[in-house]
Design brief:
Belongs to the beta/gamma-crystallin family. This protein has 173 residues and is an all-beta fold. It contains one helix and 14 strands. The chain is elongated, with a radius of gyration of 16 Å.
């Protein structure tokens, strides 16, 4: 379980809404989101309803304005608590759609796919264990994508419009 509080204004001011489980549409609770407080758990917040649009990973802490969570704007429309995962992490990434081409296995964080494996694109992946975050750029920056245990045959299945992945990070327990 987790607890997250959304505030319409910066610095935890204005109308607020407290959430302790996933919510596919937050629009009826607030019109904009300029600050967030995560009391417990780890969360992904999404720019659009139904877990679509830009994604932002948040862990326990205070985010007094949307730039603090690397937000592009003050729009948050859905959220999902990330389940705690106690065992190891394991994923396979592929250079082609449908698990084709060269396969690379990951069990730990990778701050730069290009430096470590000489690749810049991931076209498909199979997340075997754990929860992960794909980042568009190296050093855990740019757009973020939550990767849950599942098979992703094409990059659009994890919400991206491009195959570009610069870094990958595990979400530890």
């Amino acid at each position: 379980m987790g607890k997250i509080i959304f505030y319409e204004d910066r610095n935890f001011q204005g109308r607020s809404y407290e959430c302790s489980s996933e919510c596919a549409d937050l629009h009826s609770h607030f019109s904009r989101c300029n600050s967030i407080r995560v009391d417990s758990g780890e969360w992904m917040v999404f720019e659009r309803p139904s877990y679509m649009g830009y994604q932002y990973f948040l862990r326990r802490g205070d985010y007094p304005d949307y730039q603090r969570w690397m937000g592009f704007n003050d729009c948050v429309r859905s959220c999902r608590v990330i389940p705690t995962h106690q065992s190891s992490h394991r994923m396979m990434i592929y250079e082609r759609p449908e698990f084709g081409g060269q396969m690379t296995e990951l069990t730990d964080d990778c701050p730069s796919l290009n430096e470590r494996f000489h690749i810049d694109n991931v076209y498909s992946c199979n997340v075997r264990d754990g929860y992960w975050i794909f980042y568009e750029h190296p050093n855990y920056s740019g757009r973020q994508y939550l990767m849950s245990p599942s098979e992703y045959r094409r990059f659009n299945e994890w919400g991206s419009t491009t195959s570009r992945v610069g870094s990958i990070r595990r979400i530890p327990a």
